[in-house]
Amino acid sequence: MPALPKNLTARLTWRGLLLLGSLLAACAASAAEAPAATPDTSAGWTLDQCLKVALETNRRRPASRQAVAAAEAQHRQVLSAYWPQVNASGGYQRQDQAPNFLFPSAAIAVPAQSISTPGGAAMVTVPAGVLGPTAVQLPVTFPGQTIVTPAQTMPIPEQNIRLMNPDSYLASVHATWLLYDGGMRKGLRDQARAGVDAARQDARRTDLEIVDSVKRLYHGAVLARQLHQLGKDTLARMGATLNLTETMYKEGSGRVKKTDFLDNKIMVDSLRSMVALLEKNETMAQCALAYTIGLPWNASVTPADREMPHTPFTGNLEQLVAGAYQLNPDWNKLEAGLRAAEGAVLHARSGHQPKIALTGEVHKWWNSYHAGMATDRNKEGSSIGLGVELPLFDGFLTRNKIAEARARLQKLKEQQILLKEGLGIQIKDLFLGLQAAQKSYQATLDAANAAQENRDLNTRAYQNELVETEKVIRAQLMEALMSAQHLKTRYDFLALQSQLDVLIGAELLRQLGAN
């Protein structure tokens, strides 16, 4: 049998174990910001428990929910424009002087005229004591006469009229009700409602991303534990082989040389350092899982599952792509953006339409003066009116606003076409990746079983000095490499499924599974 190169076993070790250890270190680096609450993590957690706690404690979720609340409040602000706007105002005013009205002096011309009075008789009562002891009534007659007055001018002096006292109190209630706006409020309402839908899609995408992160890190923690156990098992077998090699080198027939023992010892020591790295990766993967769930940095979550599950993927590409156009958050968010853009066009068009509003007012005025303007009639009252505003010319401002809104709407329609094709190609890539991972699953499983059988045969043959030391070492490392490759394939399959959940929505996969 030809001898193996001296560095063959070392290459196998670094290729099979260090590569997977680096993968887990990368998984441990992705984490979310942690809140203060610290649930009990002493016992193992299932995936459902991790997802439940993550949706309660991850700080990204409250932020997305607040965005939805803000969008809903903005929508209610727009709806307030359909109600009458009623405002009450009041105040106190003191002037430095009482206001007045100065009536200027004037001269009134009186023309010449004659006044004629006819004659007649009248009874005159003479009081007692004049003509006798008692009062006496005597008839008196007077002749008719004519009085002639010449033309003259009557002067009127300047008059200073006080209107009110300096101190005044005023209270009023104003009401305005917009009756017709040419579509302005409807355009704003459509934009606000679309904003609510977009915020809800962002929140839904946040939930999907949280679930995806927890799933991948949960299975990553399971993978890290399995790799750590695989490394310890391989180290134990390699240690047993090293002891056997030492015995055969010292007490055997001479086929096993000291160089074989030293090569084996180098591999065992190298593998021992790799096991330490895998142990660190297992701890960091559990910390990363806790951190992503929303626990503090010093928390650690141990997965309850001992192995990663594997369920064959049976989805149909056409159904997945068609369903993604209904459930994908980005697609639904873009559709909400289209509705908002249409509302913006309607809002811009309202600039050409008249505005009609009903107005009303009730006022009360307190002033201690009771003449001039401060009469009881002026101190209180009410009014109602109908106002119309008709735009005539605005320098083509409204026309350009409409053009801008239409251009933005057309831009979103073009982006929708790009997103449609992009979603299709992304789903196809994940679909093909799942198919390839499913094939790799069976292939790596067969390879791992064959490597295990090969290691067992070579170990027994080595005990009888039928094979070389390099072949036993290679068989043991090949078993570890194939087992690690199989575990990585199972993890990749689960990660692809999780990414597909984010892209098309977990609801669609559940629907397809139910069918």
What is the gyration radius calculated from CA atoms? 50 Å
Calculate the mean pLDDT score and round it. Answer: 84
Q: Main β-sheet, in a few words?
A: 4 strands, antiparallel
The CATH architecture can be named as Up-down Bundle
Strand content: 15-25%
How many strand units? 12
The CATH homologous superfamily is called Outer membrane efflux proteins (OEP)
Instruction: Return the CATH topology.
Output: Outer membrane efflux proteins (OEP)
> Roughly how much helix do the residues carry, as a percent range?
55-70%
Tell me the span between the first and last alpha carbons. Answer: 57 Å
Structural class: alpha+beta
- The CATH first-level class comes to Mainly Alpha
How would you briefly describe this protein structure?
The protein has about 525 residues and is an alpha+beta fold. The protein has ten helices and twelve strands. The chain has helices spanning about 10-30, 45-55, 60-80, 185-250, 260-295, 315-325, 330-350, 395-465, 470-505, 505-515, and strands at about 85-95, 100-105, 105-110, 115, 120-125, 135-140, 145-150, 150-155, 160, 165-180, 355-365, 380-390.
